[in-house]
Amino acid sequence: MSKRLDVLGIGNAIVDVLARADDRFLVDHGMVKGTMRLIDAAEAERLYDAMGPAVEVSGGSAANTIAGLAALNAKAGFIGIVRDDQLGKVFRHDITSLGVHFPTLSREHGEPTGRCLVLVTQDGQRTMNTYLGASQLLGPDDVDEAAVARAEVLYLEGYLFDPPPAKEAFYKAARLAHENGGKVALTLSDPFCVLRHREEFRVLVKDEVDILFANEAEIMALYKANSFEQAREAVRPQVPIAALTRSEHGSVVIAGEETHVVPAEPVSYVADTTGAGDLYAAGFLYGLGRDLPLSDCARFGNLAAGEIISHIGARPETDLAHLARVRGLLG
Amino acid sequence: MSKRLDVLGIGNAIVDVLARADDRFLVDHGMVKGTMRLIDAAEAERLYDAMGPAVEVSGGSAANTIAGLAALNAKAGFIGIVRDDQLGKVFRHDITSLGVHFPTLSREHGEPTGRCLVLVTQDGQRTMNTYLGASQLLGPDDVDEAAVARAEVLYLEGYLFDPPPAKEAFYKAARLAHENGGKVALTLSDPFCVLRHREEFRVLVKDEVDILFANEAEIMALYKANSFEQAREAVRPQVPIAALTRSEHGSVVIAGEETHVVPAEPVSYVADTTGAGDLYAAGFLYGLGRDLPLSDCARFGNLAAGEIISHIGARPETDLAHLARVRGLLG
């Protein structure tokens, strides 16, 4: 237990329920394509009944990133809440079988394990409806102080800002990480999540975040920018490293006066973009932990994101370390 | 409720838990690649703990066939037992969301919903470890007589011969189907299943079965044949129609003096063969229900099997009817 952790993630512990749908279905059920919305238990029930046949795969934004890091053989840990039900067992199995340290005990009472009903359209885009369930019980007491203290990087998802006790846990963990010489990484998660918490996110990024992950829509929402270039310059003085993803246009890394533009990994067929941002972060943080140049960190991110969008589900199906070796990114 | 059903399936109601594994893992855990073995709750627990991260998808042999038929817009029904737990809800959702008539109520007590731990090796082969759970509670009282009476074809899986009350249900349903002018179809399921019940299967095929599905290993095991040709001739006088699948060599349909050899559907990449036989049966029965020539029924079978092996999981991910139209099999 005295070993360092490369990355410790704190996030919602969610099982994804993925089904194919057409654009009409999204419209009929009031969804905005490509975004995430929070739903309650009753709405989750209604929507599930209306959806087609599904596949269940462990998910959760930070948890996907941590799974990706573990698949690259990084030492990783995760904190998040599940119930002691069947889906909770699935989540725990999937993350621990990758060798991830997962100290959080399953809750024996209360709401069931959280789930995200993901509608995947023909174009590979995913539209998410999240019932947080047990996940929203995460509070400051769940922050395993020993785990945070031994993490090189603490990785947090913006979605944690939705339930107030999780936000408290978030601040506590960030403070602990910095006290112990760790860095704090944050992903903005979703443009609507940014709209819900813009002012707080801006302060947080400036005061607490060392490495920021965001896609184009999120970074533009954060700084009310009219163009990506404007958002890119707005974030530059706010945070030491910002890794900004732009879907098929690859990613842009900002660090002080440096700007690295790295093209996307070529993908022959986009099956499902669920988890693309999460896996980009996994690859990027893996590179960073090995002190690679920032442009190679971005290449690692693109590689992992490229794998994840080639199949259904947000957890890697192939050996990412092998893939990186093939591409010359790992010796 | 007075409408006819094209096909009514009776089978184990199972959720598949699919994970990648290497050949070494199979050997270390005493499995024979490509086969199915029954395990108890404790062994299921042990094996699950040893497996890597998994994906959960509804399965069950006859249930997969019924799902395939529904995906082709056939009127289909299913009888099988789940518990009222989370995996049971998943199974029920997936099959009913396809429009399948599923009259069996979930059990409120006893063992949890059955699951099949499927190890998928690099070559795409699947090796199955089935914990029947609630599924083995299926008995004669669960045979919905109204549903059987209105089925054109009753479809049964050989796996039902393992738990004795299910076998009783099997015979009751077959008798009812014939009394109401329906046909009885059977899949032999697995060579080990054939070895467990050879003598009974032989009598059953001769006395009760109108359409038999088997792969090469199964039909050879049934007639203790030394070659496929020998098995093919042994089955010929026993059953009106035998549809025999031979993996990449396609399938052979025997009907009286007729023999139709139909090549396999070309597949660029075999991801996971789970459900290939089940989906072949779906396509074949669909064609039969539309009075297509037997060789076209086999082509339909190959088409559906080809789709299922191109991805992880035993339920169709693409529109099979559309695929059939593209291939000129449907007008």
Account of the 3D structure:
2 copies of one chain form a homodimer. Chain A is built from 13 helices and 13 strands. In chain A, α3 (61-71) crosses α11, α9 crosses α10 (228-235) and α11 (276-289) packs antiparallel against α12 (294-308). Chain A has helices at 23-28, 41-50, 61-71, 86-96, 145-149, 164-179, 191-196, 198-208, 216-222, 228-235, 276-289, 294-308, 320-326, and strands at residues 5-10, 14-20, 36-38, 55-58, 76-79, 114-120, 126-131, 151-157, 183-187, 211-215, 241-245, 251-255, 258-262. The longest helix of chain A is centred in the middle third of the chain and has 16 residues, at 164-179. The two termini of chain A are 28 Å apart. Chain A has one domain (5-11, 61-110, 136-326): Ribokinase (UDP-N-acetylmuramoyl-L-alanine:D-glutamate ligase). Chain A is globular. By secondary structure, chain A is α/β, with parallel strands linked by helices. The model of chain A has no long low-confidence stretch (mean pLDDT 94). Chains A and B meet through β4 and α4 of A and β4 and α4 of B. β4 of chain A pairs antiparallel with β4 of chain B, so a sheet runs across the interface.
